[in-house]
Each structure stands twice: as C-alpha cells, then as structure tokens.
Input
Amino acid sequence: MKHIVFAVGLVVLAFGIAILAQTQTESVEQELLKLEQDWTNANVKADFAFPDLILADDYVNTDFEGVVKTKGQYLEALKLDKELVISSMVTDDMKVRVYGEAAVVTGRNTVNGTYKGTDFSVQYRWTDTWVKKAGRWQCVATAESRIAQK
Output
C-alpha cells in the first residue's frame, strides 16, 4: 500500500512540475513576443532608445545584404540614416522556441516607407537569438533574409 501511495505521489508531482514548466515557457514566449512587437513599433517611431535597452552589449546583426554590424554600428546606422522613413512595419508569423535561459524567435516583417524620397516595400524573414542576462531578456544576434518579390 505504501508503494502505491508513493507512486501516485510521484505521478502527481511529475504532472505538477510539467504544468509549471509549460506555464513558465508560455510566459517567456509571451514576454519575447511582446519585446519583438515593441521593437517593431520602435522602428516605426524611430525610437532608438528602445533597441539600446534590449540589445546585449555583444549583439551582432547580419542584415539581408550580408553586412555584419555590432550593437554600436547597428544603433549608429539607425540614427544616421535620416533618409529612411518607415511608414508602416508589420511583424507576423512569429514563433518562439525556448531553451532554458536562451530562446530563438523567428518572424516576418513587411515594411513600407521611403528611402531618399523613393517609395519602397520589402518583406524579410528574421531570426533573433535571446539570452536571459542579469534577470532580463536581451537579444544577442539577428539574421535577416529578404523575401524575393514575385
């Protein structure tokens, strides 16, 4: 009888831990999706302070032309490119994969705006790698791939 009670107790404990882990993972997923959406909104508003907060000091960005930038270079490019005006940016098809204190988020952006007075529209896929550092999520890497226009 003691063995049955012990076994049932273990099963209940295992289910409880599994439910707690799933709830924590879902919470992390929601937090990262919000950070990604806030980053999109910051791009439209030309808010350069927000990316500075969420990007790790050792952040690396590989854009869809294959150009690699450090955090400093990425932020400087955003600030200096006064001829780029984003009128709309929609982020969709996001998926989050959590690996403990690390996560990978993938998605698609559709961007409309003007560059040097010429209208443009572009779609690209991206992969962001996040790591929990000092109690908060920070993006450590981004890779972008342009989606060919048909």
Observations:
- The chain has one domain: 2-146.
- The chain has three helices and six strands.
- Residues 83 and 114 are 8 Å apart (CA to CA).
- The longest helix spans residues 2-45.
